[in-house]
Every structure is written in structure tokens, then in C-alpha cells.
Amino acid sequence: MVTIAESLAQWAHGYRPDAADLALAERSLLDTLAAALAAREHDVATLASVLPDAARWAAVGHVLDFDDVQVETSSHVSVVIVSSVLAVGGDARAYLAGAGVMTRLGTLLGWPHYSAGWHITCTAGAPAAAVAAGTALGLTPHQLATAMALALPAAGGVQAAFGTHGKSLQVGFAAEAGVRAARLAQAGATADPRALDQWLTLLGGVGGLPDSGGPAVPGGLAIKLHPCCYAMQRPIAAIRELREALGGLDPAEVARVVVTTPEAGMQPLRHDRPRTGLESKFSMPYAVTTALLDEFPDFDSFTDAAVNRPEAQRLVAAVETVRTPGGDDLLTGEVDIRLELSDGTTVRTSLAQPPGSPLRAPTPAELDAKFAACGADIPALLAGINWASARALLNKALPAGPLES
């Protein structure tokens, strides 16, 4: 009987990209590099300086929560897979093979796995990174399946880390685990591919062989326009569109806010009363707050100082979240937001798909604006970049070094 690892390995080894796949890979490379370069001065860049390339780049690339998302699996595909591919000198095909495996593994793990508190970017990410790195290294299908099994001991990560350094660091650990596993398989290490089937069962996966049809990344990837959890993109967009429709909205006049949303869309939003910039990236009340206070929520909106603004804390306390049952991804259904103003009037808005989602793909202008927001020098740094030159760019911007206490 063919195992899941063998099936995925055969798919990845035989996969050949089409033009749409290659366009997705190019966008993913640029988006991941921009998010990593934007975090050059973040304290995680110092903390991660002692880590190997894949771990360092993935941790820094994820810490601002500005990297892309595969919505159906709630996983940050590119930051793991791009980092793993670049660490071994790979290209677009290696990225797409790894991204495809990560999406298919995430689908097999299913929403119950994510809703139980696992960080699927790490659980699906480690074995998928092994395929990505292994494809770049030219491994055989048997070696790819072996590498996936060798990555499993490091395929962990939990949502309790959200709002701390642990979230981005565990993403880095997953990327490095994949590279390590691929190199071990290349060197002749052995492992039983059936381990992946057992692991999937133990983690509550749905089982069965993965779907080998469709594009490299079924469902596509969502691009974030604001540097925070993807579950916050929709309420931020809803408030911003309401403000535009009204021709402005004075946040001082907002007395109470009621957000009604499917409970699935709240899964990663652990902080109802955030006090730090990292916590504010995982908070429904703060999504509403920053959308009301800030013209366009950006990096400055998600700092310790921003979240502790007196008016921000007032508005956070004024938000009530009502969770409706069900859902199986972060964009299930729609978000409904009712604002009660101090004069007794009420305004209301709802939204299903935020800008940047696969069904509302980012425009070239939105992508350009995102890259420019990541740093004044980043558009020039990304101009003409490719898979061969990206490694040197990251090594220069995020060099390895000793951890300073």
C-alpha cells in the first residue's frame, strides 16, 4: 500500500510548473523577502542570529506577521518554504513542490487540528520543508519520503505561542528541520515513510491519500496588506470601507462596538486586552481599534506604544465579540460589525473577503505599496531579484552572528 509520504514524494518529484504556478512563486518570493527585510531591526533578528540560515530567515520573516497565508489550511506557506529553498540554493520549482506538499498536508490535517491549538505552519511546515529542500537537492522520490519522516520529530508548534517571540521562532525551527532532514536523507539516513501516516493519525488528521490534481497550491495564497494576523485583515478592511463610505468617522464618537463573527475566524485571536505590540497582532478588539484610529494600519499601529494609547485602550474595552458556531477556516462566512455612537445612532458594516484574499487578489499598486511600507530601500532591493540572488540579499541583511545578552 502506498503511504502518504510516498504519494506526496511522487507528486513533488514529477511536478512541473505552469505559467500560473511560476507567477505565484515569483510573487511569494518577493512578498517573503519584503516581510523579512522589514524586520531587520526587530529584536527577533538578534535572537535568531545564532540559528542556521533557514531558521533565521523564517523566524525574522514571520515575526511581523506580514507574510502570506494559505487560507483553507490557515498556514503561512511561503515563509517556511522560501526560507528552506533558499538555504540550499533552490529555485521556483522546489518552492512550488514544497508549497504544494504543505497545502496538501494541511488539508489532510484539517480544521480540527488547527482548532485544537496546533500551529499548522509548523506541523505541516517541517515535512513540507523537507520536500522543498530535498527537491532543490535533487533527491529521489524514496529519499523525499524518507526526509519527510525524518522531519517529523520537529513537526510541532502550538498557538499558545501567539503574541510572543515563540511564534516566529517555532516557524524558524520548522524550516530548519526540513533542511536538516533533507540533508540527512541525501547522506543516506533511513526512516520509515509510514511514520507520516501514524503522525497524521496521532494529530487528528482526516487520513487518506492527498489530492494530486489542480495547481501547485490549491486555493492560492492570500497577501496581507496589514502587518497582523490574517484573521484581523477582514475586520480591519470592513471598518476602513465603512469609514470611506461615510466620508469619515470620528473614533471619539464610538461608544460601543459589537463584532459578530464565525468562531473559526477567532481561533488565533487570543488577546482580548492586548498590552504589547505582539499581542495586538492577535486581537479582534484591537483590529477594530486600529482601523478606527489609524488611517491605514501599518507597522506603527502594532507597537507597545500604539496599543497603550489611552484612546486605543478605551476602544479596545468598548468592543464586544459575539461568536457564531462553526466554520472551517479564517474566512468562513462574514464578519458583521455594529458601531453604536455617542449620539445614540448606529452604523453597521459586513464583509466576507478582504483585499488581498485569493478572491480579491492584490493589485500591482497594493503590492507596490506594501513593499514600500516595508522600507524605503526595499523596492530597489527587490528590483530584478531572483531565486539565485535572494540568498545573498538575505545573508547581507540578516547575517548570522553571536547572540548578545
TrEMBL record:
Residues 226-377 form the MmgE/PrpD C-terminal domain. InterPro entries: MmgE/PrpD_sf (IPR036148), MmgE/PrpD_sf_1 (IPR042183), MmgE/PrpD_sf_2 (IPR042188), MmgE_PrpD (IPR005656), MmgE_PrpD_C (IPR045337), MmgE_PrpD_N (IPR045336). It comes from the Bacteria. Residues 58-197 form the MmgE/PrpD N-terminal domain. Pfam families: MmgE_PrpD_C (PF19305), MmgE_PrpD_N (PF03972). Belongs to the PrpD family. This is MmgE/PrpD family protein.
